[in-house]
Amino acid sequence: MAGNRTFTMIKPEAVAAGHAGKIIDMIIQAGFEIKALKLTKLTAEQAGKFYEVHKERPFYQELVDYMSSGPIYAAILEKDNAVADFRKLVGATDPAEAEEGTIRKRFAKSKGENAVHGSDSDENAEIESNFHFAQEEVLA
Ligand code: UDP
Ligand code: MG
User: Which domains are present in the chain?
Assistant: First the structure.
């Protein structure tokens, strides 16, 4: 199982702009299978905890405010080499640097409001999945 799953969020500005369906379609067309999915809204406290690793970075408060500003979709995705392949589909943090065909190139507004989250390691994929989903909400 290790290495086959990753975690994603469709961020508030992309949901508000009505892009969630198109982003989910890109994810499925790229060969990822959705194992869990929910529409939710983070409190500032939850967003702060989720992004705790960035606590010392200058953009932390802005990131917390943004990620708790509106509804998001959270999902667990399965595919061979899920973490790395999903980061490739997502594209660079700054959409100005994202490659053609990536989700961020197509939908991100800025380096902060960049449409989607993608886990950066198998370990974080597991931690982040458990943060958002109870075991019974996740398909085997
Ligand atoms: N972020 C930001 N300003 C920056 C860098 C990051 O607002 O200079 C935000 C952005 O939403 C990013 C998130 O913080 O997606 C987490 O940053 P990270 O470096 O982990 O980027 P990612 O892994 O999402 O590409
Ligand atoms: Mg990251």
Answer: 5-137 (3.30.70.141)
